[in-house]
Write a structure and sequence with these properties.
The chain has 196 residues and is α/β, with parallel strands linked by helices. It is built from five helices and six strands; from the N terminus they run E-H-E-H-H-E-H-E-E-E-H. Helices cover 30% and strands 15% of the residues. This is PI-PLC Y-box domain-containing protein.
């Protein structure tokens, strides 16, 4: 609903979105929002889609496209209502959220100013030649991706190694990161569809 917003048309806008099994209350979203607002005057919007993200992985993957289109419509409405350029938007998505922001960018024909994919999800996206079905460099004027969990799925890597942006960054080779807890083994609900 754009009626009850404090959106400032004079400021750039960052839109943050979580990934699989997440919600808008995740601490990293709040920390990133606070860090961004301390650095610069901005509009910051956090998008939550727990009803679509807290499912078996295969269902959550299927939900990314509709969430991305809905996000694109929200951005269109904000741009029209407040007469702002799509270039002033920066979308930041983690895991499946990285593909959601890709779909939002596709919906807007690549007119978004910038997209950042934080560890774009790998299962069902790795090796996918159809760039319409995943984050891709044509989804915004500038697309960057940071790959931090791209080891093979058999090693419980949930990120993708393939390039998808104008710039792709691979800290420590793009695989397991020092100091990061491996919660996947304890929290991963088994979805046989991944292995079929």
């Amino acid at each position: 609903n754009t009626e009850s917003t404090r959106f400032d048309s004079n400021l750039n806008t960052k839109i943050l979105i979580h990934g699989w099994r997440g919600d808008s209350q995740e601490s990293w979203l709040s920390t990133l929002k606070d860090t961004l607002l301390k650095a610069k005057d901005l509009n910051v919007i956090i998008v939550g889609w727990p009803g679509g993200a807290k499912n078996l992985y295969t269902q959550s993957v299927s939900n990314t496209r509709i969430i991305g289109i809905m996000m694109g419509i929200l951005i269109e409405n904000l741009a029209q209502k407040f007469n702002v350029s799509l270039n002033s938007f920066h979308l930041i998505g983690h895991s499946l959220g990285a593909h959601v922001v890709g779909y939002a960018g596709k919906h807007l024909n690549g007119s978004i100013g910038r997209i950042t994919g934080l560890d774009p999800a790998g299962p069902f996206y790795k090796g996918l030649n159809n760039t319409e079905a995943r984050l891709w460099h044509t989804d915004a004027q500038f697309v960057e991706a940071m790959h931090t969990d791209a080891q093979p799925i058999i090693q419980l890597g949930l990120g993708m190694f393939e390039t998808c942006g104008h710039v792709d960054i691979y800290p420590n080779g793009g695989e397991e990161q020092p100091g990061c807890e491996d919660q996947v083994k304890d929290e991963l609900p088994i979805d046989i569809g991944i292995f079929a």
